[in-house]
Amino acid sequence: MSVFSEFTKGFWKENPTFRLVLGMCPTLAVTTEAINGIGMGLATTFVLVFSNLLVSLLRKVIPDKVRIACYIVIVAGFVIIVELVMQAYFYSLYKSLGLFISLIVVNCIILGRAEAFASKNPVTESIADGLGMGLGFTCSLTVLGIIREILGNGSVFGVDILGGHYLPFLVMVVPPGAFVTLGLMLGFMNMAQSK
Amino acid sequence: MKDTLRLVIALTTICVVAAFALAMVYDVTKAPIAESLRKEKLAAIEAVLPEHDNQPDKEVQSIVLGKDKKGREQRLDFYIAKKEEQWVGTAFTSSAKGFGGKIVLMLGLSPDNNLVKVKVLQHKETPGLGAKIEREAFISQCVGKSLKSGKLKVTKDGGDIDAITGATISSRAVCDAVNNGLLDYAERFSKPDDNENVKLQSPNVK
Questions:
Q1: Using a CB-CB distance cutoff of 8 angstroms, which residues of chain A are in contact with residue B22?
Q2: Domain residue spans in chain A?
Q3: Residue A186 CB neighbours (<10 A)
Q4: Residues paired with residue A156 on neighbouring β-strands, in sequence order
Q5: pLDDT tens across A61-76, in order?
Q6: Could B36 and A81 be called an inter-chain contact, meaning their C-beta atoms sit closer than 8 Å?
Q7: Which residues contact A191 (CB under 8 A, 6 or more apart)?
Q8: Cβ B22–A80 below 8 Å, yes or no?
Q9: What's CA A109's distance to the chain center, in Å?
Q10: What is the ipTM of this complex?
Q11: Which chain B residues are within 8 Å of A170, Cβ to Cβ?
């Protein structure tokens, strides 16, 4: 496979949220608003790209028996960097994502890509894979965030679009709404795939 | 044995390198983080105080409430607003238990103990129901009230604050928080006798 196809597969064919169904905890929790989806997605992308890069670089040095421990240290390191930088320079986003930034550490997409891809492939492919997977994840979260924000709050990216007469469909911004939206999206993706 | 040593060395090296990298990032971001925390606090304080020309977060009168389980001091800070050296208001936080968790309010009081403004700093109420306590239409009902004017209760309990439909518990909790705050203030903060030349005395802890 070429570097380019490693990059594009994350958007549709192996989309982490809708096809691999990985990393559901942040997906369900932070997608109450579109902007949160983008913020979470980009933070994850950053961690994913750099952890893939390092894991791929070190893939011949890291002994097999302690590889998971090594990957976790690398991933956790980058997550804390993201957290500190966000807190320092994007404080309002940091506040709205809250605890879920630290929880990127246990997002299975990241460890999954490190284990399944970066530990077996050269650096360029691994970066492409991380970038594609990360941006695919970002797109999925943003789509979910947009749907939930429109129905649950009548706005997109904080801008009112449905006007004052719209009575918000509140269930969409609480956790059950996340499950319903995700389920419907998965269904649509499967339908589109099977045709 | 040789194999074990290799594992230990690899893992240790990675951890040490990671620790150094984090220490460096921490060092760089320390000042901006402190600044954004301060800005957030200042914004909350400013929002509830009347017009002033000092920096209220620099003029703090605090009292020690006691110690928590870990032995850390629990303090209540009163932020003092002044205009042309005259005391024009005081801001402080107060909290109560709501429907989903703790509700924290910032209260702004004028020197004659009336509420100037109230702002919700933190809450975990249900979105769309209890979360409406943040809205101006609800929270501004407290403005102008004081302990003496009373009736800081929801209408159901005989007060004159209209509760949010479907969120009586959250509305009640906000009233509780306001009342607790006012009581704390009245109990512990002494008004200077000499109003002409305002120099705040240290609060009386009764």
A1: 77, 80-81
A2: 3-194
A3: 14
A4: A159
A5: 888 888 999 999 999 9
A6: no
A7: none
A8: yes
A9: 8
A10: 0.79
A11: 127-129
